[in-house]
Design goal:
Blueprint (H helix, E strand, L loop, with lengths): L4 E5 L5 E8 L2 E13 L4 E7 L4 E7 L4 E8 L19 H6 L2
Antiparallel strand pairs: 1-2, 2-3, 3-4, 4-5, 5-6
Length: 98
């Protein structure tokens, strides 16, 4: 899917995405998590403000960007459940019965 991406050029001329448009909404890139190249494209795994991750693909010859993959926000980890132990009477109450 072709998308509109705003990018910055680094000191060596490489492009890095800083924001892109998806569904009419501007999504600022908070972090570039990974980048890699193949024979014809440069790929960027980016994270946006709501935690979703996207893989953006750039074809350098034509400077056209495509959306290659979408990953949902990571689910928060729930604390492990504590095992249930049978309750025993407290010593305080046993002293009252004497």
């Amino acid at each position: 899917m072709k998308i509109c991406v705003h990018s910055n050029r680094g000191p060596r001329g490489e492009e890095t995405p800083c924001a892109f448009y998806l569904g009419g909404r501007r999504l600022p890139v908070l972090a570039v998590l990974a980048r890699w190249n193949d024979a014809t494209h440069a790929f960027f795994e980016v994270m946006v403000d709501d935690g979703r991750r996207f893989v953006l693909s750039l074809q350098p010859g034509t400077r056209s960007w495509e959306l290659a993959a979408v990953f949902g926000a990571a689910a928060p980890k729930k604390p492990a459940a504590k095992p249930v132990t049978p309750s025993t009477p407290r010593k305080f109450f046993s002293l009252l019965t004497k």
